[in-house]
Amino acid sequence: xxxxxxxxxxxxxxxxxxxxxxxxxxxxxxxxxxxxxxxxxxxxxxxxxxxxxxxxxxxxxxxxxxxxxxxxxxxxxxxxxxxxxxxxxxxxxxxxxxxxxxxxxxxxxxxxxxxxxxxxxxxxxxxxxxxxxxxxxxxxxxxxxxxxxxxxxxxxxxxxxxxxxxxxxxxxxxxxxxxxxxxxxxxxxxxxxxxxxxxxxxxxxxxxxxxxxxxxxxxxxxxxxxxxxxxxxxxxxxxxxxxxxxxxxxxxxxxxxxxxxxxxxxxxxxxxxxxx
Length: 276
Hints:
- The chain is mainly α.
- It has a single domain, classed as MetI-like (MetI-like fold), CATH 1.10.3720.
- The protein is about 75% helix and about 0% strand.
- The radius of gyration is 23 Å and the shape is globular.
């Protein structure tokens, strides 16, 4: 009986792996085939190999500029969101403002998180237009901060509340300042949560498309999702290899980030899911 169940489990895992990894394989497969093969009946296994689609992306489509724009916008917005979000989450978890996280402020943070992103598009657009910033990258960075900030606060409150406050009180008796307590005692203990929320925020900002369409006005400020969207037009429906190559390049930063921080991601998500 146990052997039968183990075989069934293996079959289920194999089906799930094929189901999830086949789209990635197919994208890689399309990106390395030459244009002649892509215009005919496309077989499951590639019959040709070329890197022309990747070179064309950078030579003709300005993909290097889009990649640098995406990195700049993502890193700046995630860094600002982390600095603000961790501070707010720590304060709320320790009730330093005498406002319970389950009260009005916590409810407001939760409501901002669950509202659709389009709800903030018009107010932000009007604000940035009146400030004459609509031609810069500041509007899209501000929008990404709005997306990630509430998530970081909501996610990290659980980690800070799980820490025994007696450690901080003992450090205060020894003469430690608030800043020393936060940086030397609290932050090292919640690093798995910080790593997890950093990865998830990075992925959200890197793949964000809606605010990019609304706020990015100049082609020189285009991000990777916007460049890929312009390639999906009626004139370029047959450019499968080019679009697949762009998808592979857009996948690499997130994939590398997750691989190097996988240990922290798993432990952080599992820790944040358990409440004592």
